[in-house]
Amino acid sequence: MTPEVPDTALAREAAEYVRDTAGPLLYDHSARVYLFGALQGRRRGLEFDAELLYVAALFHDLGLVEGHRTDRRFELDGADEARRFLLDRGAAPERARIAWTAIALHTTPGIPAHMEPEVALVTAGVEYDVLGIGYHDLPAADRAAIVAAHPRPDFKRRILAAFTDGIRDRPDTTFGNVKADVLARFVPGFTRTDFVTTIEDSPWED
């Protein structure tokens, strides 16, 4: 049985904002991230704040969207926007902090799973929808119902294009995270920053 979308004023306003700001590709993806993340949470026996997970999932890719981009990592742009959204509507600072952390770390494998459930489950939802990690963990009927509600036509190509468009103008922000793979594939002339070379070329003598 697929999870219920939180029916609160905050959740409805977040959905409307992201739908209008990010467009259907990222909105449907983000809604699926919540639903798949919630299912993974149920499967893992985690207790989580569904409203907070929903808001964090909705905002997790907002930093890719024109008008919400800075010269920093896109994850931070989305995280800051979610925190502002929550605090402006009277959310407790601790809830805003958890949402911020969930978004900021959603492309950093291995760490979110050891943090608050909402942080872990945003990443779990992203990994499920984008990478297919844990694909067979969830019932096929649930997966089909979620995709019927939030379709993913030509999703692989379109999400890679959205990633490329959202970060091509700030290539240095991909150092140390998975988005360097996107620019290496789709942006001619992109050169990865190499951790070993950075150490060897530092101003230290030895």
TrEMBL record:
Domain HD positions: 27-113
Pfam families: HD (PF01966)
Listed transmembrane segments: none
Cross-referenced CDD domains: HDc
SUPFAM superfamilies: HD-domain/PDEase-like
UniProt cross-references to PANTHER family, sorted A to Z: CYANAMIDE HYDRATASE DDI2-RELATED (PTHR35569:SF1)
Protein name: HD domain-containing protein
